[in-house]
Write a structure and sequence with these properties.
Elements (H helix, E strand, L loop, with lengths): L17 H6 L7 E5 L2 E4 L4 E4 L2 H4 L8 H14 L11 H13 L6 E5 L2 H18 L7 E5 L8 H6 L3 H4 L8 E5 L11 H19 L4 E6 L15 H12 L2 E5 L23 E4 L11 E5 L1 H4 L19 H16 L2 H17 L7 E7 L2 E6 L10 H19 L1 E2 L1 E3 L5 E4 L7 H22 L5
Parallel strand pairs: 3-13, 5-6, 5-7, 7-8, 8-9
Antiparallel strand pairs: 1-2, 2-3, 4-10, 9-10, 11-12, 12-15, 14-15
Helix pairs in contact: 3-11, 4-11, 8-9, 12-14, 13-14
C-alpha cells in the first residue's frame, strides 16, 4: 500500500508559505463542501465564510443545483468555442446583458478568464485606442500606492506593492504611483484630502507630459491597505483631469463589481463614469472562472474601423460554460434581490462593526457595502505594529485564531495591519451579527497573544 498523500505533497498554494503548510507550522484548511454561507472542512468543522472566498462567492454556496443544470445544458449544447473571430450565443447574450447594466456608454465587452487578464486586456485596449488616434507616445500609466491590480506581468506593473514587483525585474508598463485615499492618521479629510490627492495626480501629469499618459487606473474602494474609501469629489476629480488631458480612466472593479458595494458597479456610488471597467470574481459568483472588460463607445469605436485588428485574445475568454453560469448568476441577483439586500443591511453591518472599537487593538474601521476592514494597532491610533509584531500577529497567531472561531477572514499588511471581511451578499442580520461576534472573538485572542488589554 502506498504512502498517504497529503494536500501539500504536490499542490503549490498561491501567495502562501508552502513550507510552513507542509511542515505543520500552521494548520492547512482543506475545504470539502459549502452550505449557504458556510464552508465545511475535511474535519467536519463549519466555518462562516466572512470573505466570500476571496471576494468572489457573492451568492454563497446555495445555488449549486441551479448552476449545475445550466452548466450541464451548456456542456451538451456547445462545450467550447472561442471568441477569436467567431461568436457563440452565451457570449453574445452575456455581453448584451452586461451592456444593459453598465453605466453610461460602456456597451462593449471583451471577455477574459480572470482579474489579472482583465487588467492587462484593459491596458491593451487603451493602447490601441491611442494608436488609432495617432498618439503612440501615450505609453505611461498612473496608479495608486499599495493598490493591487494583479500579478501577471502587465498587471503587476500597475500594482503598487513593491515587494510583489521587485523579484521580477523591470515592469512591463511605465507606471507612476500616487497616494491612495487612506485618511486614517491624516489631518486632512473630505474635500481637503481630495484636493491634495488630485493635485498629486496633476503633478505627475505635468512632470511626465500629459501627452505621454495613456490611462489612470483605480479601484472605487481600494482593497490593499484595507478598504480605502474615496473622499468626496475624488472620482469626479479624476474624471475631470483625464478628460482635460485626453487620458482614459479605468475603474478596476474586479472586487467591487457585482454587488460588493450594493451596486452592479461600485464606481456608480461615487458619481463618475469611467472609460473602461475591469471585472471578474463576482461576475459568476465564483461558480466558474471568468472576467471581462467593459469599454465605452469612445474606446471601442476605433476597433470597428475597417481593416483594423484587435490585437489581443485569450483562448478561454468568454468560455461558453462560464458565460452561461454568469448569465444565471445575474438572473439570481435579480430574483434574490441581492443588491437590495446589501443596501438594506449595510448600515446594520457598519453598526455591528463599530461595536468592536471598544477593543484597544482596533484603531480604525472602514468600508462600505459588504466590504470592510479593521485596522489593528498596538497602543492607540497613532501607533503601528513593527515587522516582527506583524509576523507574530498575522502569520503565527491569526490563522489559528480564525480556525478556532470557525471564521474565514483575511489578515493583510500590504499597507498597515488589517483584518478584512467581505461576506456573501445574501447574508441577513443574524448572519452578520454572528460574523461580527466571531470576529470579536478573534480580536480578543490576538489582543491576549500580543499583550494588549481587551477593555
Amino acid at each position: 500500500m502506498g504512502a498517504t498523500v497529503t494536500a501539500t505533497d504536490h499542490l503549490l498554494l498561491h501567495f502562501a508559505r508552502n513550507g510552513g503548510a507542509r511542515d505543520g507550522d500552521t494548520e492547512l484548511l482543506v475545504l470539502e463542501r459549502g452550505e449557504g454561507v458556510f464552508v465545511i472542512d475535511s474535519l467536519g468543522r463549519r466555518h462562516l465564510d466572512g470573505l466570500s472566498n476571496l471576494f468572489c462567492a457573492q451568492l454563497g454556496y446555495s445555488f449549486g443545483a441551479e448552476m449545475a443544470e445550466v452548466a450541464g445544458r451548456q456542456l451538451i449544447e456547445l462545450p467550447f468555442a472561442t471568441n477569436w473571430g467567431v461568436a457563440h450565443p452565451a457570449a453574445v447574450e452575456l455581453a448584451t446583458r452586461l451592456a444593459e447594466i453598465a453605466p453610461g456608454s460602456l456597451d462593449h465587452v471583451f471577455f477574459t478568464s480572470g482579474g489579472s487578464e482583465s487588467v492587462e486586456a484593459a491596458w491593451k485596449l487603451v493602447r490601441q485606442y491611442h494608436l488609432a488616434r495617432g498618439e503612440p507616445q501615450r505609453t505611461k500609466a498612473i496608479a495608486r500606492d499599495r493598490a493591487y491590480h494583479g500579478v501577471t506581468l502587465g498587471a503587476l506593473a500597475l500594482t503598487g506593492v513593491p515587494g510583489f514587483k521587485e523579484p521580477f525585474g523591470t515592469p512591463a508598463i511605465e507606471t507612476f504611483h500616487v497616494a491612495n485615499t487612506n485618511d486614517f492618521r491624516r489631518p486632512e479629510s473630505g474635500r481637503e484630502l481630495t484636493a491634495l490627492l488630485l493635485a498629486e495626480v496633476e503633478t505627475v501629469v505635468d512632470r511626465e507630459g500629459a501627452e505621454t499618459i495613456a490611462m489612470v487606473i483605480a479601484e472605487p474602494v481600494q482593497n490593499a491597505g484595507g478598504c480605502l474609501q474615496p473622499p468626496d469629489g475624488y472620482w469626479a476629480g479624476l474624471r475631470e483631469i483625464c478628460d482635460r488631458h485626453g487620458i482614459l480612466l479605468v475603474a478596476d472593479e474586479v472586487i467591487t463589481g457585482f454587488g460588493r458595494l450594493g451596486e452592479w458597479f461600485g464606481v456608480t456610488r461615487f458619481g463618475a463614469e469611467p472609460d473602461l471597467i475591469t471585472t471578474a470574481k463576482g461576475l459568476t459568483s465564483a461558480y466558474a472562472p471568468m472576467g471581462a472588460v467593459l469599454a465605452s463607445d469612445r474606446v471601442a469605436t476605433p476597433l470597428y474601423d475597417s481593416g483594423r485588428t484587435l490585437l489581443h485574445g485569450i483562448t478561454f475568454g468568454g468560455h461558453p460554460l462560464s458565460a452561461a453560469i454568469a448569465l444565471k448568476n445575474l438572473e439570481l441577483f435579480e430574483r434574490e434581490q441581492v443588491l437590495d439586500n446589501v443596501r438594506e443591511h449595510e448600515s446594520y453591518l457598519a453598526g455591528q462593526l463599530e461595536s468592536l472599537r471598544r477593543l484597544p487593538i482596533v484603531g480604525d474601521i472602514r468600508g462600505s457595502g459588504y466590504f470592510w476592514a479593521v485596522e489593528l494597532v498596538p497602543d492607540g491610533p497613532e501607533t503601528r505594529f513593527d515587522d516582527a509584531q506583524r509576523e507574530e500577529l498575522l502569520r503565527k497567531c491569526l490563522p489559528g485564531a480564525l480556525i478556532r472561531a470557525q471564521l474565514i477572514a483575511r489578515g493583510d499588511d500590504r499597507g498597515d495591519t488589517v483584518i478584512q471581511i467581505a461576506p456573501p451578499l445574501i447574508c441577513d442580520r443574524p448572519l452578520l451579527e454572528d460574523l461580527v461576534g466571531r470576529l470579536g472573538d478573534v480580536l480578543a485572542t490576538l489582543s491576549e497573544h500580543m499583550g494588549i488589554p481587551t477593555a
